[in-house]
Amino acid sequence: MDQGSVLGSFDPKHAALWGQQPLKLEHNLHQSPLFSREALAELIERYPREHYSLVHMGAQHERRLWREGEISGLTGQEVMDAITIGRMWLNMRNVAEVDSRYKDLLDRLFDELAGQIPGFQTFNQHLGILVSSPRAQVYYHADLPGQSLWQVVGRKRIFVYPKTTPFLAPEHLEGIALNGVEIDMPYADWYDEHALVFDLEPGQWLHWPLNAPHRVENLDSLNVSVTIEYWTDEIRRLHMVNVANGILRQKLGMTPRGRIINGPGFWTKAVLQKVARQSGWLKRKRSARRPVDFRLDRLNPGNIVDLRAAS
Questions:
Q1: Which CATH number fits domain 12-232+290-303: 3.30.450.40, 2.60.120.650, 2.130.10.10, 3.40.30.10?
Q2: b/e string for 218-239 if b means 16 or more Cβ within 10 A?
Q3: Is 3 buried (19+), middle (13-18) or exposed (0-12) by CB count in 10 A?
Q4: CA–CA distance, 9 with 275 (Å, rounded to integer)
Q5: Is the pLDDT of residue 19 over 70?
Q6: Which of 30, 165, 192, 283 matches a 20 to 30 Å C-alpha distance to 251?
Q7: Per residue in 39-66, pLDDT tens?
């Protein structure tokens, strides 16, 4: 990959559609030595515990299952081998903060986007790396920051749904904002009739409108994907409104009237959510985490050891 190049094709048409429609585009990340199997294995081996999640999920088209585990005691290659024949995904968060090489890559990516999209000013950009099993899935959910997914190894299918009821309701965004994590959103099989479906291969990436619900199914091979998230002033203000509206609805029993991001109504909500933050109430609400209840089985790659049974 050319040191100064991250994006592939990007033209004024894409800039005009940015944030309005899902965009399937090209990139060059899959050519970077930063994403070779050896480089990823080395990164996994030294990745800080507080910055990764190992998730074991249910099979595609089965009930939801979400368990969190750990990779201690295994080499990076052993972790990748286990994921290759298991049903799980490893999410390495905040990679740019852990390794400066990925920070340089992230900066180049956003510099290129800013040069292509008029007025595109962002902050709090983050890069994550997902290593996931063949046929693994990410359940139906929505995200609060701006998001895109960049495919590096393997193939996956992404379903993007309308950001209107019944697919997405204000209560869903408020719940995510208050809890600090994605929450279980109601999903029915017939939702897929209204989804836009995209198959991604190495060298392709997908950007979708803010908050658009989506879910992901891996196809038949190990997957390595890069997740990019970012904030803008508009997204930050919408987040403040989501927090305030959630407080009004869940704590005060009131029905919020709207999601405007300017004027007296907005600033009243901005004060409300600030008070909730400063009081510690919001932090306490977000403090609960899923327990780590399994580890990878070094002797039987792809299997897990139940820590609950061992305790």
A1: 2.60.120.650
A2: beeebbbbbbbbbbbeebebbb
A3: exposed
A4: 45
A5: yes
A6: 165
A7: 999 999 999 999 999 998 766 666 567 7
Give the CA-trace dihedral at 293, 177, 145, 184, to 10 degrees: 50
For the chain, the residue count is: 311
pLDDT per residue as tens digits for the range 187-202: 999 999 999 999 999 9
- Predicted pLDDT of residue 289: 64
Neighbouring residues of 106: CB distance < 8 A, sequence distance ≥ 6 = 96, 125, 126, 127, 228
Question: Which tokens go with 254?
Answer: 């009131």
H runs (alpha helix) in the chain: 12-17, 37-45, 76-85, 95-98, 100-116, 170-179, 233-246, 263-279, 281-286, 307-310
Q: Assess contact for 127 and 227: CB atoms under 8 A.
A: yes
Domain ranges for the chain, please list them. 12-232+290-303
